[in-house]
Amino acid sequence: MSKKRIFKSLKNLIIIFGITFVLLEIVLAIYIRVAEIKIELPTYTFQNTHNFWYDLDENFGTLHLPNDVYRQKKYCFDAVYETNSKGFRDAERDLNSTNHRVVALGDSFTEGIGVNVAGRLTNLLESNTTIPHLNFGLAGNFGPTQYWMLYKTHAIQYTHDAVLVGILPSNDFIDDDYEIAKKVGGNRYRPFLKGNYPNYEVVYHTKNIEDSRARPRTPHFIHRLLKNFTYSYNMYYYLRTRQTISTIPKDQLLAASKVPSYFNYSEAQFDRLKYTLEVIKELAGNRPVMVYSIPIEKEIKAYREHKKNPLGKQLKAVCDSLNVEYLDLLPKTDRFTEDAYKALFLSCDGHWSEAGNAFAKKEIESFFTYYKQ
Predict the structure, then answer these.
(1) Beta strands 162-167 and 102-105, pairing class
(2) Cα(349)–Cα(113) distance, rounded to whole angstroms?
(3) How far is residue 329's CA from residue 311's CA, in Å, rounded to a whole number?
(4) Number of other residues whose CB lies within 10 A of the CB of residue 137
């Protein structure tokens, strides 16, 4: 075969491959949106060439890279996350201030995953009250033991006159359960309470933070290129992850009926939550501590069906004993229609939408005494 014919054949193959790839990208772009596949989409930039969070702190584990920019895009949102010099998604804050300031503790709901910074809870509160709200919320399987450890070792250093704590029952009980977390997210450097209430010791899954599987790594250029510029690569990783999960023995996975939530938790799990609130209040001293609990969409639906709320009752009793105000957002959703409460959450992700953040802001500001003074 002549070189000319070989060249022509290669050219035709490249053209066919190119057309097939473009068609595949178009089909996947449509399918992901129609089928509501909850995966990250290409941003056509290099703004998310690494992970958004890692195990970086020797005390509470999870943290973001300092002075970083990460863009997360799914079919229902496109948000940019910027971190300050300490690795938090917040403005740069001075340690000392003569102003009123609130320290906000929590997980990804507090951090505002899925919404741009102006539309999240703490920024809405800060904008309306002119009181700076220092956001120490963190994504990445961040639970109440970590709220406490973060407050104790870092956030308390910032002058403030109130503490706002967001509890998310749908994963806080899991995130604080050493045995469950080891099955679903082991080999992470995260603190857990081990023992029986109130005699706990703080333990970690890995001996050293360097042993964590969530340490910073520089992705290969090809990975970065494909992740940020193709649907195909992101779909491949999504399917590979699902395949990996399907190979895990069933006895290592939690059945749906055993997943902790507003309506399903053990005494030991509640005791750990209770303990973390007690030590946060102790550290806060005379500062008011404000606690609110966050229901997710399926919990709102379940509450409408049976109207039982044992967690709300127990949490109120604990908070009353600590002289801490407690706001349960679950009953506050009763006034919404089904479409309205579903609109509080991002359909492709499950976190609060801008409407959800606005709902929480309104309820918090009208409930806690601190905001009425």
Answers:
(1) parallel
(2) 9
(3) 12
(4) 25
Residue (of 254, 269, 262) closest to 294 by Cα position: 262
Q: What's the rounded Cα separation, in Å, for the pair 70 and 6?
A: 45
Sign of CA dihedral 19, 21, 26, 30: positive
Structure tokens at 100: 């009123």
CA–CA separation, 164 vs 291, rounded Å?
A: 6
For the chain, first and last CA: distance in Å? Answer: 88
Distances in Å between the Cα of 227 and the Cα atoms of 34, 49, 266, 304 are 21, 8, 40, 41
pLDDT band at 352 (very low <50, low <70, confident <90, very high): very high
3-state secondary structure of 320: helix
- Please give the structure tokens belonging to residue 359: 């709902």
For 195-229, the pLDDT digits (tens) are: 999 999 999 999 899 999 999 987 788 888 888 89
φ, ψ of residue 259 in degrees (nearest 5) = -75, 120
Rounded Cα–Cα distance for residues 129 and 124 (Å): 9
Strand 199-204 and strand 54-57: pairing? unpaired
- 196 CA to centre of own chain: 27
Spatial distance between the Cα atoms of 144 and 353, rounded to a whole number of angstroms: 23
The whole-model pTM stands at 0.92
State the burial class of residue 251 (Cβ atoms within 10 Å of its Cβ: 0-12, 13-18, 19+): exposed
Q: How far apart are CA 361 and CA 41, in angstroms?
A: 29
